[in-house]
Write a structure and sequence with these properties.
With 513 residues, the protein is an alpha+beta fold. It has two domains: 114 residues, Glutamine synthetase, N-terminal domain (Ubiquitin-like (UB roll)), CATH 3.10.20.70; 358 residues, Glutamine synthetase/guanido kinase, catalytic domain (Creatine Kinase, Chain A, domain 2), CATH 3.30.590. It has 17 helices and 16 strands. Strands 7, 8, 9, 10, 11, 12, 13, 14, 15 and 16 form a ten-stranded mixed beta sheet that branches. Strands 1, 2, 3, 4, 5 and 6 form a six-stranded mixed beta sheet that branches. A hairpin with a 2-residue loop joins strand 12 and strand 13.
Length: 513
């Protein structure tokens, strides 16, 4: 029996089974019982944006055929530069476990989909299939499972109508009403995302607050921007991509309903917090976290994972930092990494090892003497966090790259461990010039990221996980940003002109990702 909480998945409640058990017959039952008019197929393109195909259903035979066989479409329009136009027809097929009732368009049963070739094989060049294959290869090689979760940061822009209790610049972290004007909207986002995806950890106001944006884009000019964050729970990494893409879709739709604009762009104003998309990773064996040893130290596998992610970090920017404005966020002293290193609870490091309740448990009992039933848990929740990706990331490809790095780390354990040992730091790296100089740097532009991706392409193309044409296409898209000497050009401008030009770059394509 599925026990219902207020934010339980509506279809799980209606069908009295978990979403992983949903069948074609179940979805047809939902369509009939809820008098739904259509099925909406969702998928992602190479930009990481959600797209849709609407299929009306007037009888059970039509619904049965659509759910069983999917539909066909033109793949060359979706994956331009990766698929040959002469062989562009693809089948789009629903993933039953992803089904949900569309909260924005009543009458629709929505599902995430996957692409298949004319021969009936998964289309390996599509981001979601590529992620699945990367996760499968990691598990096949190691016997371990890789879980991931993201921290979605975004600004909500609106016209300031209430000047009472103004928030302070760069002081929005965990702000509460009445200082946080967008808190009720965040509550709505939290509720809808939890009902559909069921994997939310928490939400809160973030540091950034822009009292009145200066911009050539009328969507935000003169409007107030309040930064928010929604953080998720770890899920099998092949599921995490869909979660992040759907969450962005939900956030944008709710913002739109309230006359607001949700912006995930990496950077919006000099001196203001940018929008990161930090990714946490967790290793499991037989369903149990293995990130710590029995005495609380980081495990051998965790050190290998750190070393693998550090090794791949420069080229991972090709999937996680894909706009020129990404490299206006990756600057020193802004809690965004510029050097490749790792540390415990150090927010200037590329890879952080956050608190994980390693040496403590049931903390609330120290404050609540009336609590007579102790809380015990025999499993760790430790993760490691990659802090370089931002709101321009292409989620499925970024996660596939991380899974590939994790697989490399377990196959090259000595090399990965050596990298982790050599790049461990403590304290603020910017106060130690000698240490800072010894640490490798992340790319400083999309152009540099493209060069690093091409140089390291063998790391991704091994055993055909990342197709050659996909690497070529991604490198070409990065070069189209034309930012190879951007830092030097900006440095040569006056303060006023630099600020104006920086805003042009930061606000270009606010809704592109």
């Amino acid at each position: 029996m599925i026990e219902g909480f207020a934010l339980a998945h509506p279809l799980e409640m209606q069908l009295n089974k978990t979403r992983s058990e949903f069948t074609r017959a179940d979805l047809i039952h939902v369509i009939k019982q809820n008098q739904l008019e259509r099925i909406t197929f969702h998928y992602t393109d190479l930009n990481g944006r959600l797209h849709e195909l609407k299929l009306p259903v007037c009888d059970e035979a039509r619904a049965d055929r659509v759910l069983a066989n999917g539909e066909r479409l033109d793949g060359s329009s979706i994956f331009k530069g990766v698929i040959d136009p002469g062989l562009s027809d693809l089948y789009i097929v629903p993933l039953f476990s992803s089904a949900f009732l569309n909260p924005f368009e009543p009458g629709s049963l929505d599902v995430m989909c996957r692409f298949f070739t004319r021969e009936g094989s998964p289309a390996a060049f599509t981001p979601d299939i590529l992620l699945q294959q990367s996760a499968d290869a990691f598990h096949r090689d190691t016997g371990l499972d890789l879980l991931a979760m993201g921290e979605l940061e975004f600004y909500l822009f609106r016209r300031a109508e209430n000047e009472l209790y103004p928030n302070e610049v760069q002081a929005g972290y965990h702000a509460s009403p009445p200082f946080s004007k967008a808190s009720p909207i965040l509550n709505e986002m939290l509720s809808v995302i939890t009902r559909i995806l069921g994997s939310v950890k928490y939400a809160h106001g973030e540091v950034g607050f822009i009292p009145s944006a200066m911009s050539e884009d009328p969507q935000i000019h003169g409007k107030q921007g309040e930064q928010m964050e929604i953080e998720f729970l770890p899920t099998p990494i092949h599921q995490t991509g869909d979660i992040l893409v759907l969450a962005k879709w939900i956030i944008r739709n709710i913002a739109f309903q309230h006359g607001m604009l949700a912006v995930f762009a990496p950077k919006l104003e000099e001196g203001m917090a940018g929008n990161g998309l930090h990714i946490h990773m967790e290793l499991q064996r037989d369903g149990r976290n293995i990130m710590r040893t029995s005495d609380g130290e980081l495990s051998r596998e965790t050190l290998q994972l750190i070393g693998g992610v550090a090794t791949y970090a420069p080229s991972l920017t090709a999937f996680g930092n894909t706009m020129a404005s990404s490299y206006l966020r990756l600057v020193p002293h802004q809690e965004a990494p510029t050097r490749i290193c790792w540390s415990a609870s150090n927010r200037s490091a590329l890879i952080r090892v956050p608190l994980g309740w390693t040496k403590t448990n049931d903390l609330a009992s120290a404050l609540n003497a009336q609590q007579d039933q102790p809380y015990t848990v025999d499993d760790s929740v430790q993760t490691i966090e990659l802090r370089s990706p931002d709101g321009s990331a292409i989620p499925h490809l970024l996660l596939a790259g991380i899974a590939t790095a994790a697989r490399w780390s377990m196959r090259h354990h000595d090399e990965a461990t050596a990298v982790a040992e050599s790049q461990h730091v403590t304290g603020n790296i910017f106060t130690d010039p000698t240490l800072l100089k010894s640490l490798p740097s992340l790319p400083s532009s999309c152009a540099a990221s493209a060069s690093r991706l091409v140089a390291d392409r063998h790391l991704y193309e091994q055993e055909g996980i990342f197709p050659e044409r996909l690497i070529d296409r991604l490198a070409a898209l990065l070069r189209e940003e034309k930012d190879h000497d951007l830092a030097e050009k900006l440095a040569g401008l006056s303060d006023e002109e630099r600020a104006r030009r920086s805003r042009q770059i930061m606000h270009a394509g606010l809704n592109r990702r």
